[in-house]
Design a protein that fits this description.
six-stranded parallel sheet; single chain; about 40% helix
Length: about 190
Amino acid sequence: MQRLVVGISGASGVIYGIRLLEVLRGYPDVETHLVMTKPAERTVVEETSYRVADIRAMASVNHSITDIGASIASGSFRAMGMVVIPCSIHTVSAIAYCLSDNLVTRAADVMLKEGRRLVLVVRETPLHVGHLKSCLAAAEAGAVILPPVPAFYNHPKTLEHVIDHTIGRVLDRFGITHELSPRWGEAPSEERAE
């Protein structure tokens, strides 16, 4: 059993975190540990038709944002890594400058100090110099900055295709095999099947 910590912050694009949890439910060997910020819960209401309880039900384990004593706050907690999806500028800045004031930022700090994979799906545009400096500081500390930038070589037909491309890129960073979107130079799976 592999464990993946999933943090969802209050940035716009909360559907990315939801879709990642949906996809990971199809991987019985991956145990997901979810922690959501209070702004994330608000964004769920503003941007989707999901209930927060429904999103929590998608995860193997749920943690309260205020539970600094949770298992994922310790370096002894074994995990393949963590993804914050979407990741607000507030959250990336807190991670970059070691401000572990909630469980998302504390768990992210643990990943960095233990040398584990930390992927930040930073969702903001345009970026001013302060934003860029925070992203740079997080990257210098060891985080992977992975903005949800759509690709068009795969000819996406729906918003779901665009979202799945980003989810596939996240899964790639953790070595999780998938067929969410075609790769450059490969035919889409429906074309291969014919």
